[in-house]
């Protein structure tokens, strides 16, 4: 597998079109939510809508995904011993991932004592800064601050997404300083083979499982497509009840 996923011109055009559709749809939904004072960000379209949608729980044809088991290299938020595991395959430069992030952070916080939440990297080839930001999160993780860096990168996506790779790295160093990392060690680790291998391993595992878009959420081996916090909650509560 090469470092970059190779896309044809037609595929790149389609992905660009999908991202514009996603952002336009999200903007319209945010306006509706603001007028009606409804909490939360409701997202009607996932990036990369070409993948198959699996109905969870309501369909006899629910399809399992052969995802890699949680392992010591994964960063887990919540309860590592839980038998309910929610995995996100994400790309830090993906606009839809950033739009989902406030909902995902609330899910993490509300279910931290009940489930294990795992983030795995799936940097898309058309996002030039997806890998360097993934490396930054892993380098921060080496100093025990993966989730702090993860959240800061997503929160600041608009500020760094269109910068050059060198300038993005400078932004990541500023983030590292803000969360109290040893900067010398961070700069060494962001370029280390170990960090790059971890990101590639996540990516390869996602491809093997059939992931081809971000964000992709997998709950106990089943792909789900929640469009709101309440839908996340319903999926999780079903799985908690089934595993109680």
Automatic annotation (TrEMBL):
Keyword Transport applies: no
GO MF annotation list: oxidoreductase activity
UniProt keyword annotations, A-Z: Disulfide bond, Membrane, Oxidoreductase, Redox-active center, Signal, Transmembrane, Transmembrane helix
InterPro entries reported in the protein's UniProt record: Thioredoxin-like_fold (IPR012336), Thioredoxin-like_sf (IPR036249), Thioredoxin_domain (IPR013766)
Transmembrane segments: 36-57
Domain Thioredoxin: 41-241
Family to which the UniProt record says this protein belongs: Belongs to the thioredoxin family. DsbA subfamily.
Protein name as catalogued: Thioredoxin domain-containing protein
